[in-house]
Amino acid sequence: AQSVTQLDSHVSVSEGTPVLLRCNYSSSYSPSLFWYVQHPNKGLQLLLKYTSAATLVKGINGFEAEFKKSETSFHLTKPSAHMSDAAEYFCVVSDPIKAAGNKLTFGGGTRVLVKP
Amino acid sequence: NAGVTQTPKFRILKIGQSMTLQCAQDMNHNYMYWYRQDPGMGLKLIYYSVGAGITDKGEVPNGYNVSRSTTEDFPLRLELAAPSQTSVYFCASKPVPGANVLTFGAGSRLTVL
């Protein structure tokens, strides 16, 4: 079985300051990991993905995430928050063995508020 | 490309009514999915399809039905709507088995009163 825990349901940052969104996972296999962003009243958009290549993954809009197997973590960071980063972020783990059935497991989400 | 298109965006139903959420994609993706998103929760898989004529249950299929008569369309039917089905529904698709990146629609917000 696999699971994903996003450690913060809400994060509030000031514009221009760093953003850290924490994600821990468990998986029986070498997982694929993803971060998706959801802006208000929009569908989910892929930010970045880890698929067993480089452990530091760069995504869109200046976000990056580091896969740490020893800590079973995949935290998302951005050096300087922008007002447009206000959204909900989901950490997702994929079971590669059951890719056809798309056994994606979603974390509960972290809502990011950016203060001017 | 339009990507994944869902209709309607919003709907209010009375308990016991039925309705169909429409999902269409124009990317020739074989794999299509329906998820529901409840407040403070991640997405839960309702049903999925790996191609026209083939559907399978996800984690939370009770109260729903799907069909896949064409590659493009994957409607989700709610029979006898219940308040527990109040949620935001997302349709998603992907092209091939190994590609785990989904393309999502904008969502359909359903309220059952």
Description of the molecule:
- The complex is a heterodimer of chains A (116) and B (113).
- The mean pLDDT of chain A is 89.
- In chain A, a hairpin with a 5-residue loop joins strand 7 (56-58) and strand 8 (64-68).
- Chain A has no helices and twelve strands.
- Chain A has 116 residues and is an all-beta fold.
- In chain A, strands 2, 5, 6, 10, 11 and 12 form a six-stranded mixed β-sheet that branches. Chain A has a four-stranded antiparallel β-sheet with strand order 3-9-8-7, with no helix packed on it.
- Chain A has strands at residues 3-6, 10-14, 19-21, 23-26, 32-38, 44-50, 56-58, 64-68, 73-78, 87-94, 104-106, 110-115.
- Chain A has a single domain (3-115), classed as Sandwich (Immunoglobulin-like).
- In chain A, 0% of the residues lie in helices and 53% in strands.
- By secondary structure, chain B is mainly β.
- Chain B has a single domain (4-112), classed as Immunoglobulin-like (Sandwich), CATH 2.60.40.10.
- Helix content of chain B is 0%, strand content 50%.
- In chain B, strands 2, 4, 5, 6, 9, 10 and 11 form a seven-stranded mixed β-sheet that branches. A four-stranded antiparallel β-sheet of chain B has the order 1-3-8-7, with no helix packed on it.
- At the A-B interface, strand 6, strand 10 and strand 11 of A face strand 5 and strand 9 of B.
Count every beta strand of chain B, where a strand is a DSSP E run of 2 or more residues.
Answer: 11
Distance between the termini of chain B: 36 Å
Element order of chain B: H for helix, E for strand: EEEEEEEEEEE
Structural class of chain B: mainly beta
The CATH class of chain A is: Mainly Beta
Order of helices and strands of chain A: EEEEEEEEEEEE
Total beta strand runs of chain A:
12
> How many domains would you count in the coordinates of chain B?
1
CATH class of chain B: Mainly Beta
Q: Evaluate the radius of gyration of chain B.
A: 13 Å
- Please mark out the parts of chain B with pLDDT under 50 across 5 or more consecutive residues, or reply none: none
Please state the second-level CATH architecture of chain B.
Sandwich
**Quaternary status of these chains?**
heterodimer
Architecture per CATH nomenclature, i.e. the level-2 architecture of chain A: Sandwich
